[in-house]
Amino acid sequence: MSQHPSYSIEFFPPRGPRGARRLDQARRRLAELSPAFFSVTFGAGGTTRSGTWETVRETLHTTGVPAVPHLSCIEGTEQSLGAMLATYAASPVDRIVTLRGDLPAGMRFPGVFHHANELVSFIRKHHGDRFHLEVAAYPEYHPQAPSASIDIDNFVRKVEAGADSAMTQYFYNADAYFRFVDAVAARGVDIPIVPGIMPLTDFAQIARFSDRCGAEIPRWLRRPMEDFGDDKASIQAFGRDVVARLCERLLAGGAPGLHFYSLNKAREVSWLWHELRLPTQAAAVYA
Description:
46% of the residues lie in helices and 15% in strands. The chain has a single domain, classed as TIM Barrel. It contains 10 helices and 8 strands. By secondary structure, the protein is an alpha/beta fold. Strand 3, helix 3 and strand 4 form a beta-alpha-beta unit. The radius of gyration is 18 Å and the shape is globular.
């Protein structure tokens, strides 16, 4: 296990020229923070899949920061996934975020692999230890898991298949993270499990995300945010304080780093990085 905390940042492939410009601006600014890596998501149902590799290449070229593609089981075949892995193996990519992926509406099952542990096993079979494999973890449990114990079983299978580390779905309850880590440790899991951190300055947007992905917004957090209404300054101040204190508690409790969901924006991640005094190479503007 790494001796030093790992701090990383996630992007999604942009759509259209405007999205590309916004990502480029955010990426250049966030590169000044010198994160361990940038990760790039993999859209379900072909929505952004073609842009993942392009965004990874651009990120490597423009920033020099290691770029990490997400790879999903959704709609994949052994041939298409094998071709993608061969492309990554021939590139500087040395880490992959390995996921089942979210099923598009109307799809009952993913492609050739139904679960992320099967994809992890496939990569290990064909590429050995060429890649560091990251998997997902759900401190508040996956919304489709029949029970908490079954979700723990699923996570353990991914580790047994060859996962090196994990990053979590975002959450706002630190106890959920620590209990999850304790639960999997009791099953013999000792890989780093890095908390996923979602800045909280656009409450309506995060509430929509949370309703879809099952991340809980606690009542003590939701009600004040609702009371602020259109008062953006109060929402920002309250949200920043909540997330900064969450990060402090996680790091003080032994979390092996933080993974920030940027939503292709730099301002809030930069502010948190500065507030938490995380290591950085260059000063950034946080106003």
